[in-house]
Amino acid sequence: MTLKRITGGALALAVLIGSQLAPAAAQETPGAPAPQTQEAAPAGPPAPQAPAPTLAATQALQAPGAAESAKPAPTLAESAPTPPQEDAEGEVLPETDRVIVRFADGVSEEQKSQVLDEAAAGTAVTEPEIVKESVGENSVVEANTGLDQGEQRQVVDKLKASPLVETAEPDLIVQATSAAPNPTGEPHWGKQWNMRTIDAQGAWPAATGSGVTIGVVDTGIVSHPDLNAKVVPGYDFVSDTYYSRDGDGRDANPRDEGTYYGNTRSNWHGTHVAGIAGAVTGNRIGVAGVAPDAKIQPVRALGTAGSGYISDIADATAWAAGWQGPGMPRNANPSQVVNVSMSWAGACPAVMQNAINEAHNRNVPVVVAAGNAGINASQAAPANCWLPIVVGATASSNVLTGYSNYGSALDVVAPGGTVGADIWSTVDSGAYGPVGPSYGPLNGTSMAAPHVAGTIALMKQANRGLTVEQIRGTLRSTGRSVSGYPLINANRAVAAVKPAAKPKPSTPAVGGAIGAYYHRNGGAGSFGQPMAGELSLVHGGAVQEFNRQGTRAAIYWHSSTGAHAVHWWGSIGAKFKRDGYERTYGYPGSEEVRGSTGSYQFFNDPGTRATNLLMWSPSTGVGAIRENTGIGGKWAASGRESAMGYPVGDEVRKSDGAAYQFFRVGNRSHLIMWTPRNGSHTILQHGAIGQAWIKAGREGGWGYPVTDEYVGSDGRVHQKFSRGVEAVWSPSGLQIRR
Questions:
Q1: Is the whole model's pTM more than 0.70, yes or no?
Q2: What's the CA gap between 103 and 143, in Å, rounded?
Q3: 8 Å CB contact between 255 and 434
């Protein structure tokens, strides 16, 4: 299982095409707060929660990894550089040597090592190692071999089977750039039809991006007279020495070392994107940028063949917005808008969603490319993540290009160009490594995205107080329809957000069912002032957020539940937010109820009609109970928290189809296990039978429970298990029957 040698342009690197996942195309693409004694308000840093009881997996878990020597070494082609071509859509390599794991709160380093060793047992993986911590409290695990897609699924399933693991996913390698620039001539304003299309020059009398920094998460940047004076210190997040090409992994130098691979030339994708967003304008030596006075922060996440690990892309995105993870320097110049011109096929990775959440929580818009595969953007990441501003591409004829991804995930469109009517910007003249500054054409949704990032920089100069959702709404409302999507207009967007000469204080309206709830429950005295207007959500619901002296809450409404509040500062609200809001749990069906032993709140999903219960206690932390499942139904029928206790973590699904969830009340620990054949039964882990089951190897020894503990006709306590074992207990001792 060695990492397959990647040939030609098949190396999958971190993508640079837009905000939705999209397959490769012929285009540019060159934690919840810790339990608190009182749930009333946040106080201080999170405290570790008690670790969940261990559950030995029936099969050993395997951690992915690959030896350095197994990774493909780039070679300079002796033949002439490849002919000009469009920027290609990103793709995902079939193998990876890393897995992203989020361990449960309170899990010790020793326990983490034990989980990884158990996962590797019986596989080709030896000595799996945590190589770095990533955004969202995730750990990146590397081993000594590559895992194909089937092996990745096996490893992830085994990891998820451990109660000490909250989430696990492959750290896939994606490739964003595979094309070379078209032949260049000396570009000038006459070639920049794209700037006239969005009326950038019309916005400049009001705003030029002064005082705003644009983070460019990409292949890095080269020295260029149209950019040098604008660049603020960035960072190189490429953690693997093969992909980094500079040989030293992560460092403070985000220089683009070239993306060449085999006979494919470097296309200087990051420099091209930076020039579109903010090249110096008026120096008469090259091209104009959308925000000519904005600063550029280069954040390198892709290297050899335009490729890199998703966790590196996620870390780069969050860091650009001001987040600081383990082993990273503090970003002294956080960006006010982050451009991620990348796309790759697949679902939104949790670690990428964590990064976008980090930026959104800091009020920093993340602009992503929709992708260049000509498919629905819901099939491409990070465009199919929640909260980024997703950008499709238009041609010079003001129609959606044939390569651009499409669909409801797109927020806006912007010029992306086509062959013969490309987007001109800053590049390097070198075919492989940096040689000297030049200008050249590329096309794709990667080129469309920085038009939007630059426009946002203009808007933020005009109005510093804009929220991400106000920016999104303004870009949509001020654009004109092209192929059914709003084509951005920089001039109109800036004019729409620029405060009047004598601005009057205004507060977003609070009305309808949300307004009625707000005023009925104390109004500003309870919730504070609205942070923005009411937003429409999935299944016809709505939400509005409020802020009272730094304590935030949201009032949700849906026709099936009515209006109820979720408090972000509480453990329940933090979990609801961290796990995906209403898309994961549905709409609140009750208020949060706080008692002497803990708190709980019901949520109802209109799509699945499922009822979800989030519960918190000081000793267990916060967990979710899905009441429509066998485990949730068993817990409810057995007496809920008064008899069974509070959940210790969420329900865990195993690769063999079984599921389990831990509950604790006082010093009593209950484990409810469900199988398709036997249904749900409880193991009293604190009892004699439960302790014997644990010592025998848990489900790997006696199997799953097929009954609860019951008193037989002989007056003794019995419990039966799926591998033919019957445990019988009386005060005189424990008897095992087979």
A1: no
A2: 18
A3: yes
Give dist(CA 346, CA 165) in Å, integer: 23
Range of the domain at 212: 189-497
Task: Say how many residues make up the chain.
Answer: 738
Please report how the helices 490-497 and 445-462 are oriented relative to each other, as an axis angle in degrees rounded to 10. Answer: 30
What pLDDT, in 10s, does the model give residues 247-280? 888 999 999 999 998 888 999 999 999 999 999 9
Give the CATH number of the domain where residue 269 resides.
3.40.50.200
Given 87, 244, 269, 718, the catalytic residue: 269
The Cα–Cα gap between 231 and 220 comes to 11
| 624 exposure class (CB count in 10 Å sphere: 0-12, 13-18, 19+) | buried
Q: How far apart are CA 390 and CA 269, in angstroms?
A: 19
Q: Which residue's structure tokens are 């099969």?
A: 59
| Domain assignment present for 117 | no
Mind listing the pLDDT tens digit for each residue in 444-481? Answer: 999 999 999 999 999 999 999 999 999 999 999 999 99
Task: Judge whether 446 counts as a catalytic residue.
Answer: yes
Phi, psi dihedrals of residue 349, rounded to the nearest 5°: -65, 140
CB neighbours of 74 closer than 8 A, spacing ≥ 6?
Answer: 245, 260, 261, 262, 304, 305
Instruction: Identify whether 718 is a catalytic site residue.
Output: no
Q: End of a domain among 434, 468, 497?
A: 497
Closest CA to 231 of 283, 172, 281, 297: 297
Of 97, 105, 218, 312, the active-site residue reads 218
d(CA 371, CA 92): 13
Alpha helix positions (H), 56-187: 109-120, 149-160
Contacts of 379 (CB under 8 A, 6+ apart): 20, 21, 22, 23, 345, 346, 373, 405
- Among residues 470, 497, 524, the one where a domain terminates is 497
pLDDT (average), residues 59-74: 26
User: In 551-606, where do the E strands start and end?
Assistant: 551-558, 562-567, 587-588, 593-594, 599-605
* Catalytically annotated residue among 311, 446, 571, 680: 446
Alpha helices in 245-286 (DSSP H): 269-278
Strand partners, 587: 604
Q: What are phi and psi of 130, to 5 degrees?
A: -75, 115
